[in-house]
Amino acid sequence: MNYISIDKFKKAWVFKHQDLPINEADLDAIKLMSPERSAVLWTTMVSREKDHPDFFTKSEWPGDEATWVSQLNWETPWENGEPHLPQTLCDFLQWEDNTTVYFCLSREHVFETRFDVFKHCWQNFMFLADGSLLLGKKRQGVVQFMENGQAKLGERPKS
Q1: Please, which of 27, 40, 63, 151 could form a disulfide with 56 given CB 3.0 to 4.6 Å?
Q2: Residue 113 placed within a domain
Q3: Residue 102 falls within a domain, yes or no?
């Protein structure tokens, strides 16, 4: 089984928050990968060595400062209730709405959805911002959402 019910996720409340409702179609498009599938994606796209963003080192692309070209504050628009992902992020990534995206919390927890769904539901995902990575399938652009309210924008190395 590649996916498990979001209800099995210990922080499932982020997708059922009363103040940030998600319509049924978008909720259905947010898929929590099984731990096994998450591990394969993490190992392939993020790190073979580290299990969580807290442990990245300079020897891996997420821990290498050369990966990151700029940063911006995501927390202010989030606190202001901006309904859509900040345009600066969209302009940087230049992804189509139907791009498959992965919101990677750790080796065991990866969400898969489409970019248009992520843009609608970004506020919900930000409850999980703890060095979490937003990756696009077959895309080099990457965003790392930090707990301090900053987002680092960069490019993954080609695999």
Answers
A1: 63
A2: yes
A3: yes
Query: Tell me: the pLDDT tens digits for 98-147?
Result: 999 999 999 999 999 999 999 999 999 999 999 999 999 999 999 999 99
- DSSP category for residue 156: P
Q: Which of 11, 10, 31 is nearest to 117 (CA)?
A: 31
- Does the reported pTM lie above 0.90? yes
The Cβ-side half-sphere exposure at 87, using a 13 Å CA radius, reads: 0
- Please name which of 142, 112, 146, 113 lies closest in space to residue 129, comparing C-alpha atoms: 146
Q: Look at the block and give the residue holding tokens 């696009």.
A: 136
Domain coverage including residue 140: 23-49+67-155
8-state DSSP, 21: -
Q: Please report whether residue 58 resides in a domain.
A: no
Region of 33 on the Ramachandran plot (φ > 0 left; ψ -120 to 50 alpha; else beta): beta
